[in-house]
Amino acid sequence: MRDPSAGDRFDAALREVFDRIKEGPNQFPEHALLVVPMAAGPLFVAVRRAVLPKPFPYVVFFYMRERTAVVLAIAHGKRRPGYWSERR
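The chain above was modelled as a monomer; its predicted structure follows.
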C-alpha cells in the first residue's frame, strides 16, 4: 500500500523549491535556451532547472519573464530528456 502522506510531502518539497526560485532564480543552472514567440518578435530565454529534494526524482524547468517565474514542466528525472521543450 502506498503512503497516504507522500502527496503532502511532495507538495511541501515543491513549495520549498518554488520559494527558493522566488528568492534567487539565478542560483539554478541554465539547462537550455528556448525561443518564445512574442508579438514583438521572438524572445530568447534561458531555461533553468531546479531539482526537488530526495526522495522525489522530479525537476522543475522554468524561465524568468521580468520578475515572474514561468514553469514549463515539473518532470520526472527519468523521462525522455526535453520532452517538454515544445511547451510555451
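DSSP finds one helix and four strands in the chain.
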